[in-house]
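fyi for ur records
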Amino acid sequence: MLAAKIPFVDVGDITDVVSKVIIDDAYNGQTITVTGPQKRTFKEVIEIITETSNRSIQFVHISIDDFKEDMRKAGLPDSYVWLFGYLFKKVAF
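which gave:
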């Protein structure tokens, strides 16, 4: 799972797409998928954030089950825990 690459999206890119879609009637009735320009692993993203923020940030791998348990402990609804567990097991990896 550590090697799974995901097309991370910058919030600025999302706002650019939303702005265009809202004002251009050509997009009416369409589903727009927004993805990042290239796929990266979580570790690669942490390395980029560390470099650009000039802060020391460490990537720590945890299992999906541990992640789900931490979400439960944080008080997230069971539906969220299930959804994120599904996404990380079946979709992203």
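The radius of gyration is 17 Å. thats all i got for now
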